Amino acid sequence: MPALRPAPHRRKVKSKLSQGVKISRLGVRHQVTTLGEGARPPVRTGILHERVMRAKLGVSAERWDEKRQEYNQDLHQSTRRALEQVSQDIGRSNHDETMMDGWEDVVENIDGIGCPDNNREISHEGGEYLATCEYDRHIRMRKQKDGRTWAEAIHRRDQAWQAQMPALADAYLLWKHGGTRIETSGGKFILSVMGIGACMEREFSHISGVSHISVTLIHYGIISCNPVDPSMAFEVATLEVFRRLRLRSPHVSIQAWVRVLCDVCKINYRRYLREQFTRAFDTYLDLLRHVDAKVKAIMSHDTPNWRMKHMCPSCCHKLNGETELQPSMLLALDGNNSLKRLARSGRQDINKPFLSDYYLTVDQVDQFKDEVRKRPKAKGPTLWQEAEQVDTTYGDTTCTDRWKAANADAVKATYKEFDESGIFLSACRHGFIILIADMVRSGELAKYPLAHLNKIIEVYDSNLAIGYDIACSFATTVKNSSLGAHAQEKQLRFVVPAFHGYAHNRRCQLQWHPLYLHGFGIEDLEVCERIFKGSNALASAIRHTSRFHRHQAIDMYFRQHDEDKYELLSTFLYNNYAQALGLIHDMPVAIAALTGYQSVADTHYQKWLDQERTYLASKEIEPDSDIARGQYVTVLTKMQLAKHMFDATCQFTPPTSRVRAIRQQAWEAYEFLQKEVMSIEETLDIAERWTPGCHEWEVAMSYNKIREYQLAVDKLEGLVVQRLFELTKANLSGTGYKLRVHISKSLQTRCKAIQSALKRYNQAAAKLVPPRPRLEWQEVVEYGTLAEFDLLRSAAREDIRKLPWADTVNRQVTIYSLRLERAKEEIARLNVEVARLNTWIHDSETEYEMQIHNLQAHKPLLCEELKEQLQTWRRLNDYHRHKLKALFALPGYTGSSEIGTQLGTTRITIKLPSSSQATHHGVAKAREDDEDEDEDDEDNEEMSRLEDYISSLSMNDLIT
Question: Which of 631-663 are b and which e, b meaning 16 or more Cβ less than 10 Å from the residue's Cβ?
């Protein structure tokens, strides 16, 4: 029998079986065989020589053979034959053998190392022999040569999941809706399963006809972490709870959730648990998307742009015979830089795409990257800069410069640390998301809103109105872009949202603010800001994720966001209707109180607005010649002052060193200013130098006083606006303690600066002819809009205080009249939107009932899935019916309560036989609430009649 080679020391690692050969990850190869019952396992053998191990253990050859024979006598006969075969194979293979599966034995020729008969010298101190044996053990290990990257491993795993996904979706529906009883094949396997209650080893039986373990596990309500040979799995209920938690609280991380599971299961947290849960959760979300795709295909909701065309019932579900709205839809655009992602995060799955009907692709955005050329840097602000000419259709104002000036330096910094620096989205006025685009390594560039407009114009009808923070300048960008002709053909309108509009100058407000435009109702179009208020909670959870997981998290959040907006849609309509009715009731009373009880028809607010627009349009940009004349007088004054100082120092005899220094400085200043005067005279072609008292001198001095007044207004305006921004920032919930302390100290300094600027303003105002009224501290700190500063600025050239449109009472009457007009427009728009929602409720349920009726026979699992979704729709729709019923009962409601028909269709009603019995608990509860409310109304009416009866009784009747 050939000599056995003891195996070297190695770690305990996972192995695989292939053709009777067991190959460990450390590169040691062993022959194994199937042993009979009760047989002992074979002895592991390695590639070291027998004499090396005998020398290491200090055992003679004779003693070694005796021990081997004693041990072999105790072995089973089949085991002894296997050992003989192993010894023969090892004797033939030698250490140069190459493995069939890509493993190689990397062994150096070290014959004689550690052998007693070697000629190597051993010192008296000793230790060399053990050292050479340890060296021998390390270099004889086989090394794995695997050229695959981690990204390739992720790609192969995803491909394996995608191949199994159809079978997984069918198995999931079978498990979820309790289909037919599964049949097992008799084989069993054990797997670690983690859930909310416990983490334990569970035994599962293979299912007949199922070729993948992952599909088998779905039948048990378990999702594995790997598609092939999984080592761990998670319960579907656990994954669903985390999904719901993540939808309601986006900042909850996977690591925090896994730590919670570990605490509940009373086990220690390990990092690999988070990685395994992430894999299982990604698979679960992909599974839900496949199931949703099946449902959409059955419902014919998978056509291109279907979601955009049906995102909002009140905007998109148009009816036959309804009143045409002007504008037809109210939309909003805006960007947000909170949802950033670091550039070095998640590089392994960088090429893994995430497909979503919310997202615009990079190619769709980049097609507009060259639409806007870089403009030259604008000059500094001039005296009449806000009075720049504006086109009646597409305008260009200086409001963009104001927004850029208000940005902090940190916002202007480079974006190199982030791959995605935020998102740019569009939404309707009810809050439903239309589209999302990633802002890639940049700020809010023009290509992002242009890409949104391109898709919006393609999908929706004409006569749209879009709110954007810088709509006054963006309208010009659209006009000059490749979308200009198409936008004009579709009658696209732009408007500045109400909150941002008050930061624009007065002339811009009159043209772009929704309060001054027809058809916008009481809508402020600040819907994007409200959306970002909620989505900012997602920022901390996606800052360090991969691109795929970032898109997945954003898609999850906004799908839930749209579901929440649908649930609150009837509340939105009810609140807006009640607010509009309140304005219609209150505004005439307020106008009458201001005008001496005149009616709205007796006011001339439209005439006042036209006069104000005409006045502002008459102001031109400050001419360069006026600037030069003002500078000429200023330089002449300084030159005369320097000449006077020089003459005064010449009278000192004898002059001191201090006087000589002042004289020298005065002379140098005089010579420099004289050159400046001559240069300006040459530019303005002045033949005779001006002197104090001449006409040109007086005109230029008056101009300088106005300019000084303008600069004082600008300084005061800037400080007040910064104070407003800091006050807003100090009240934000996400502001830390240190930053709040810093802002508080800055506000104290800012208040002192405002007082100094106010003093300077009052001094400049007093120099004007006629003098302008003084401003008090309380007036300045209460300024809430920049339009009030624009009014001060406009009053510089001439006294406009006596003009009707500048009168304080008339301006307030104008605002009240506009609010009344917008409230009436809101009522007209809500009457249409309420009818659309009321019809959508009926049509959506009817569509589900029709599909359920058609699928009951041949696709029962999808039928059950549709029934479950129908229950959810009924729960939400029943609340809408309850809210609409209250809206119909509002005093002053002028719309219809009848169910209409969708544009281009006829009404079809099909009821399931069991639909009347399958009422959801939420539906029944809502109906009970309606009945309780009706009973309360009857009780209130009875109580009112009782109160009226008691109040009608006289005291004598009560006594008798």
Answer: bbbbbbebbeebbebbeebeeeeeeeeebeebb
